[in-house]
Amino acid sequence: MIDFSPPPHVQATVEAIERFITDELEPIQRDLARHLSNEHLYLREDGRLAPEVLEAQRTIRRRSAERGFYALHMPKEVGGGGFCLTDMFFVHEAVYRHGIGVTQWLLSWTEGPNQMMQFLSAEQKQKYLRPMIRGEWTAAYAITEYRGGSDVLSMETRAARRGDEWVIDGTKAYITNAPYADLIMVCAMTAPERRSAGATLFIVERDTPGLRIGRTYRTIMDDGMTGELLFENCRVPLANTWGAEGEGFYISMGMINWIRVRRGGMCSGLGQYLLDRCVSYVKNRQAFGGPLSRFQGLQWMIVDSYLDVQAMRSLSLHCLWQADQGNLWTLKVDPSLIQAVCALKVFCDEALYRVADRAVQVHGAYGLTKESGIEKIFRIARNLRIPGGTDEIQRVNIAKMLGL
Hints:
Elements: H1 8-31, H2 33-36, H3 39-42, H4 51-66, H5 85-96, H6 122-133, E1 139-142, E2 158-162, E3 165-176, E4 183-189, E5 199-205, E6 211-216, E7 226-237, E8 241-242, H7 248-261, H8 263-284, E9 286-287, E10 290-291, H9 296-325, H10 335-362, H11 364-367, H12 374-384, H13 391-401
Helix pairs in contact: 1-5, 5-8, 8-9, 8-10, 9-10, 10-12, 10-13
């Protein structure tokens, strides 16, 4: 039989994470309760995180790293936990079953290390990757531009070699963690005529002359994490090239694949959290002479959410198992793995959106309030369908694999 339960080493880690959440994170969440339910307290006037929120985020990241949770997905030889993608599904699911508050900060997201950092040199790993594994530094992965979203190769940012330096010019838009990152991992065209073989990645330290942190966007999530980066005659040494010249597009796609595969446990966990909330609410909410749970209309909405959660779990585990059998962290990935990753992302993103939409409806007026925490997950679910590759791009990629 196929075993859908986490293996013993993962179960032990999940239990340790649960204790960490109870003992250390729940007190922080209580202290930040007013900030978490009010974006006017959560954010500064310029859209960036309030100092109290930013400090809590950094504290949780460091504490998580000290306990070995933050970089569980990274290889052991660089200080990570060595967990495979299927292992990480159970970890992500367990964390996100707590909903959205402060608990999600204990795991690295796009600000943290990713498996494509195997292409860093030994010196770069020591200088840049190790502090990220320890939760001391964070990064912003600067790929997207105003005129080059899903069409990555239309990017206009350029890098030209001048002696022993690269000179970078251009603007990156909608970049997660841009306002706070210690390191900017920027993809620029070094030989545009070569298309996918003409992009190169560079490591730019935050205080590098010619780099300017632009505005912070007010997005649908209002999370204060998305910003603009501007490069003007920004000079970095040749030693700050990530991988070889011309490998930037392929490394960038690998980073995006990490974002995509992470959605399985995240969406499944949030879906289960919302499902549990809905079941509890209709059993306890009295209206028209009895509990709401006796109305078939609400029962069917909740059953449909149950089906979506089960489908997310099954599809995710199958796709992640498939990815674990191959090598997703290489420059040229097997097309069948890309198909699996795209299927996971598009289905889980859309299924979570359906579950979140029903959860708001089931909770009625309360579901629309900030204090419920449900409408926030609805906004997050809507957001997820664009970053990391839109729903439409996932379908384009799957269609190609089907020979269409």
